[in-house]
Amino acid sequence: MLNDFPLTLKKLNLKVTPKRLAILEILLKESVYLSPEEIWKKMKKRFNRIGLPTVYRNLEELSEGNIISKINHPNRQLYYYLCQNRSHHHHFICLSCRKVEDISFCAAKEIEGEVKRNIRGKILSHILQVNGLCKNCLEKKG
Amino acid sequence: MLNDFPLTLKKLNLKVTPKRLAILEILLKESVYLSPEEIWKKMKKRFNRIGLPTVYRNLEELSEGNIISKINHPNRQLYYYLCQNRSHHHHFICLSCRKVEDISFCAAKEIEGEVKRNIRGKILSHILQVNGLCKNCLEKKG
DNA sequence: AATTTAAATGAAAACCATTTCTACTTAATC
DNA sequence: GATTAAGTAGAAATGGTTTTCATTTAAATT
Ligand SMILES: [Zn+2]
Ligand SMILES: [Zn+2]
Ligand SMILES: [Zn+2]
Ligand SMILES: [Zn+2]
C-alpha cells in the first residue's frame, strides 16, 4: 500500500508511465529533499531521453495529489520529499545536509478554532515547517 | 515606538534614507501583503528616480531585521507585510483579497520539545502560516 | 560648514529556475 | 490492433529577482 505506486497514480487519474514511477522510486530512496534538477540528473541515468519539463510537471502533479511534499526553503528554490508517513504531520528540515524528519505535532485543531472564532474565514491549507540543523550536522560542527 | 521608523532603522544599523522610510510608510498603510513591484509602483508616485532593485534590497533587509514579514504564497512570488503586532505570532492570509490577520496561537513551545526529545537538532526558524479565504471574501462568494 | 567615508542607489544587464509551445509518442480502453 | 486522450522532448521564452558598477547620499568627523 505504502509504495504501490501504480495504484497510487491510478487513484489520482494519472497514467502509469515509466517516468512517473522512476521519479517516485528516486524520491523514495532518499532521506533528503531534492530539487527538480537533481531528480532530472538521476533520471538521465535511467532514460536516454528525459526532459526537465517532464520532471517539473510530474513533481507538481504528485505534490498536488499529496503524494510528495513541497519543501519551503529559505533560498526559495523548489524541493520535494517523499514521506512514507501517510498521516497528517509536518517536517523538520536540515538546512545543512537536507535531511527531513517528521514532526508529529500539528497545531491544526487549535488554529482551526482560532480561525473559526476570530477570523471567521475558511482555511484552505496550512504550512508548518521547522528549519534547523539535524543531530548529525550539529555534532560535526561542535 | 511602534512606528518610530528612524529609530527602528538605526537599531538595525541601517541609514535613515527617505526611500526606506517611504517603503515602511507604504507597508504600514496596507492591510494586505504587497509584492516588491507593487511597492515600487507606489514609490514612483513619491520619487522621480527609484529603482526596483532598491525596493528589493530594502525589503530583504527589513525582513532580515524582523521589521516586516515575508509571506509564503502558493505562487511562490515574494510578498511582504508590515505587522504592527510586535510579539511573536503568525498569520492567516487571504488568497483572494490578500488580507493578513494575526493568529496568536503558536506551536513553538511544543515543537521545540519534540525537536529536543526526538530529533535532537537545533531550530533556526519555523514557519507557521494559514492560507484561506477571509470573512469578506467568503461572504462575497456565498 | 566643509571634509571624509562607508553605505545606499539607479540603470542596465545578467541570471536562471521555471514555464510554455509544438510536434511527436505512449498508455489505456474497447 | 485501432482509437483517443494524456504524456513527453526539445527548444525557446518567460519574468521575477539579483548582480554590477558608476554615482549619489547619509552621517560621522573635523
Ligand atoms: Zn543535517
Ligand atoms: Zn514526513
Ligand atoms: Zn479576503
Ligand atoms: Zn501579524
Would you mind describing this structure in some detail?
Two copies of one chain form a homodimer. Chain A is α+β, with helices and mostly antiparallel strands and 142 residues long. The first copy, chain A, contains six helices and five strands, in the order H-H-H-H-E-E-E-E-H-E-H. In chain A, strand 3 and strand 4 form a beta hairpin. The interface between A and B is large, with 37 and 36 residues. Strand 5 of chain A pairs antiparallel with strand 5 of chain B, so a sheet runs across the interface. The site of one zinc ion (ZN) has 5 residues of chain A, from loops. The first copy, chain A, binds a DNA duplex (30 and 30 nucleotides) through helix 4.
Sum this structure up briefly:
The first copy, chain A, is an alpha+beta fold. Chain A has helices spanning 5-11, 18-29, 36-44, 52-64, 108-119, 135-141, and strands at residues 69-72, 78-81, 90-94, 100-103, 122-133.
CATH class of the largest domain in chain A: Mainly Alpha
- Helix segment tally of chain A: 6
Rg result of chain A: 17 Å
* Terminal-residue CA separation of chain A: 41 Å
Oligomer: homodimer
CATH homologous superfamily descriptor of the largest domain in chain A: Winged helix-like DNA-binding domain superfamily/Winged helix DNA-binding domain
What series of H and E elements makes up the topology of chain A? HHHHEEEEHEH
Sheet with most strands: strand arrangement of chain A: 4-3-5
Q: Spans of chain A of 5+ residues with little confidence (pLDDT < 50)?
A: none
Strand content of chain A: 15-25%
CATH topology of the largest domain in chain A: Arc Repressor Mutant, subunit A
**What is the count of β-strands of chain A?**
5
Number of structural domains of chain A: 2
Q: Give a list of the ligands.
A: zinc ion
Mean model confidence by pLDDT of chain A: 95
Helix content of chain A: 40-55%
Largest interface summary: A-B, 37 and 36 residues
The CATH architecture of the largest domain in chain A can be named as Orthogonal Bundle
The outline of chain A comes out as: globular
